[in-house]
Design goal:
four-stranded mixed sheet; Plug_dom_sf; globular; Ferric Hydroxamate Uptake Protein, Chain A, domain 1; seven-stranded antiparallel sheet; 1 helix
């Protein structure tokens, strides 16, 4: 993943699997895997189901690319073990665990049309406690392909509607891990996400409302080793998206 240097989670996934395609929308990404859409693709974060799908779209902007350690993609018959909403496949995004006393990762990109992407990850280890703090910011002024707009059954010039609307979003996240002993590990995580989308109204008002939504959630859990390969995992999580 470090060698790929993708600008977003969508670019990471597209590079890992050519059968994954994305189409951006105001509320997130329309995803297709092997010809099937979001309804049949299960996205998980550290083995937990990702919440926050709106209108058949998954907003992957709430994930910080700098906090991702690896991505597992399960396709075919094996994905059916996860239920009917995983017929196309399962995408499990594994976030980073701090392995050094102090670890800092930063990725900044600036492009045309006011495109700014900033990803920051800060890891710290104190005794048996490990912490990874992340911050992610993304902004675009938007752009358009043409000033033509369909109105009264004909194309008319002069529209200010954009192909991609002006938008901003940011995410803050925290992940804690406590190794109680050689057998028991406890963990806790939390995140907060906000997104604004400013939709141009154009010469003919079709889109009178801008978008604003946010997500915050937390999870706690633990892992108990029964042997070298066997273990028990228990966790509870809460997400609020609106």
């Amino acid at each position: 993943l470090e060698q790929y240097q993708a600008r977003s989670v969508e670019e990471l996934l597209s590079g890992l699997s050519p059968s994954l395609t994305f189409h951006d929308g105001d509320m997130g990404s329309h995803i297709q895997l092997n010809g099937l859409n979001n309804d049949y693709i299960l996205i998980m974060i550290d083995g937990r189901r990702m919440n926050g799908g709106v209108g058949g779209q998954n907003d992957l902007n709430l994930l910080n690319p700098a906090n991702i350690e690896r991505i597992e993609i399960v396709k075919g018959a094996a994905s059916s073990l996860y239920g009917s909403d995983a017929i196309a496949g399962v995408i499990n995004i594994i976030t980073k665990r701090n392995r050094n006393k102090v670890e800092v990762t930063n990725n900044t990109r600036v492009g045309e049309h006011g495109d700014v992407r900033e990803s920051l990850s800060f890891g710290l280890t104190v005794g048996k406690v490990k912490s990874v703090t992340g911050a992610n910011f993304r902004h675009t002024d938007g752009w358009r392909n043409t000033d033509l707009q369909w109105n009264q059954q004909q194309l008319k010039p002069g529209s200010t509607l954009k192909t991609v609307n002006r938008s901003s979003n940011y995410t803050f996240s925290e992940k804690l891990e406590w190794s109680v002993n050689d057998l028991l590990t406890l963990n806790a995580s939390g995140s907060y996400y906000e997104r604004w989308v400013a939709r141009s109204h154009g010469k003919w008002t079709y889109l009178p409302n801008d978008f604003y939504y946010r997500n915050y959630g937390f999870a706690i859990g633990g892992k108990y080793m029964l042997g070298k390969r066997n273990y028990i995992v228990a966790d509870i999580s809460y997400d609020r998206y609106g």
